[in-house]
Amino acid sequence: MVELLKISANDNVAVAISPLEAGATITVAGDEITLSEGIPAGHKVALQNLAIGETIVKYGYPIGQAKALIQKGDHVHVQNIKTLLSGELEYEYRPKVDPVKTKEPVMFDGFLRSGGCVGVRNELWILPTVGCVSDVARALEKRAQKLVGEGVEGVFAFPHPYGCSQMGDDQENTRKVLADLATHPNAGGVLVLGLGCENSGVDQIRENMGEFDESRVRFLVSQQVEDEIEAGMELIEQLAATMRSDKRVPCPASKLVIGLKCGGSDGFSGITANPVIGGFSDLLIAQGGSTILTEVPEMFGAETILMERCETEDLFDKTVELINGFKHYFESHNQTIYENPSPGNKAGGISTLEDKALGCTQKSGFAPVKDVLSYGQKAETAGLNLLCAPGNDLVASTALAASGAQIVLFSTGRGTPFASPVPTVKIASNSKLAGMKRNWIDFDAGALLSGTSLEELSQKLMDYVLEVSAGKEVCSERNGYHDMAIFKTGVTL
Length: 493
Hints:
A hairpin with a 7-residue loop joins β1 and β2 (13-16). The protein is globular. The protein has helices at residues 134-143, 168-182, 202-208, 228-243, 273-286, 303-308, 313-332, 343-347, 353-360, 393-402, 431-436, 454-469, 475-478, and strands at residues 4-5, 13-16, 25-28, 31-34, 44-46, 55-58, 61-66, 75-76, 81-82, 107-112, 118-119, 123-128, 155-157, 187-194, 217-221, 249-252, 257-262, 290-293, 369-373, 383-387, 407-412, 424-428, 443-444. It is of the alpha/beta class and 493 residues long. It has three domains: 4-82, Archaeosine Trna-guanine Transglycosylase, Chain: A, domain 4; 123-245, Rossmann fold; 252-478. The strands form six sheets. A seven-stranded parallel β-sheet has the order 19-20-18-17-21-22-23, sandwiched between helices. The protein has a four-stranded antiparallel β-sheet with strand order 1-2-5-8, with no helix packed on it. It has a four-stranded parallel β-sheet with strand order 13-12-14-15, with helices on both faces.
């Protein structure tokens, strides 16, 4: 079994596959390394002596520089490595675009909606326009559980604290996300529940929805009725009656839009789970489907890889704006742009933002970038899309759903139980996590370290996603978890 993994031929560090003891001598790429200290699983070991200021390379790319003298066999981590990142940069378009070859179409059973989009669930959603009626939404959700069945696959409320006392982008973000969810294909019926005096009320959400199937959406202003629970249940029952005739029908995989996200990452995330997701992404795109990559701050340090894959110079310019725009957002709040790896990330072996980013972006596979989306913008172009959203797990996953993702693939090395408005598939980077948290984890990518090939695991994940698309519940659904979080960027009145 491999004990130290050198990912790229150009790397000057290797990753410990299991915990290693001080004094152990290990052969890596034909060279013997004697460990000067114990190395936790997922952490890095120096393959050569590194002087102060010397670049440290992993995945074939710089992940930082030595801030102390590092000897061959030393543990390379936050104590002796620092980021190379700084502020906004200038970039040059140097395309390296490889088209994806199309493959024989595969099918799944989904819900065909008006306009040609497809849902992988037939749920009834209750969307409060303002936090003041969030408890009303919860009460309606509880009372409406009696309607589940016979075509209604679930009734869920999505409470949040926003919708009033917001300014500028904050207010627009709330309106966009609620309008996006109100027209999401996984929702066979939607009740948009307002108060009546809020900034982002029922009328504003409706204006942002564009064209929609009016038989699938109802609107209620609580201040305009005597009993909002009674009135809400009447509208919900109408929606449920419409949904009972909905049936799954064969649909091509080209109709799938899948969000790509990682969180609670460890030193294996960029070696196992994220490359497997990348392999899946390429397989789906070969079917004519779409994937969406987000968490922009976790692209810092790996952004040029994505820029090189932009199909046109216009897309390259949009990607530059995406990256530098988010850096400006950090700087405008007097925050450093590189303080991203969490305590859990660091404990798992990730040392710098570049280290995290180079692992994170592997979820995108090798397909060309086809579009760059603003926050709340729906994906309309088949292929790989980049989406403007932060790295926060709940906010980013909600943003993916708002952009049209019917499913979110979420890789993790530490584990997390949360969900999003859509089925959220948890993919473990290591088999230990997959075995310990069977109530959280849906797919074990750690098998890549036990001899299963990347191609085999990517295809296995593709098959699993098709099963989920056809109705197979994921762990978070079985646990009853459905979360939503809107991106807040500014002032609250």
